[in-house]
Amino acid sequence: QVQLVESGGGSVQAGGSRRRSCAASGDDFGGYCKAWFRQVQGKVREVLATSEHDGSTTYADSLKGRFTISQANPKNVLYLQMKNLQPDDTGMYYCAADPRWCTSVKTDFGYWGQGTQVTVSS
Length: 122
Fold this sequence. Notes:
Blueprint: E1 2-7, E2 10-13, E3 18-26, E4 33-39, E5 46-51, E6 57-59, E7 67-71, E8 77-82, E9 91-98, H1 102-105, E10 111-112, E11 116-121
Parallel strand pairs: 2-11
Antiparallel strand pairs: 1-3, 3-8, 4-5, 4-9, 5-6, 7-8, 9-10, 9-11
């Protein structure tokens, strides 16, 4: 099991950057599929990026290369670097983890961070 604690939310102006962090405790985080999600009010929670057990990553096409998922060494902190933020990026951001491979999990992750709000003003 892992426990996930997020930080790095808040407000930012359009065009700005923000880095989200997700600190894991418990099991070795390297043995998990890890992901970042975003939930915009009134919409379904969407997956933004995933990081597989082998370090390979995937991204939502809609991000257009603006976000980067990465891990710290030792591998117990997950990051989401967000650049050129726009008002449409406003929402609740969540990190998630699951011991299965990402291709098996899809959106059904077993462990979730508490979520933090990111607000982008124009």
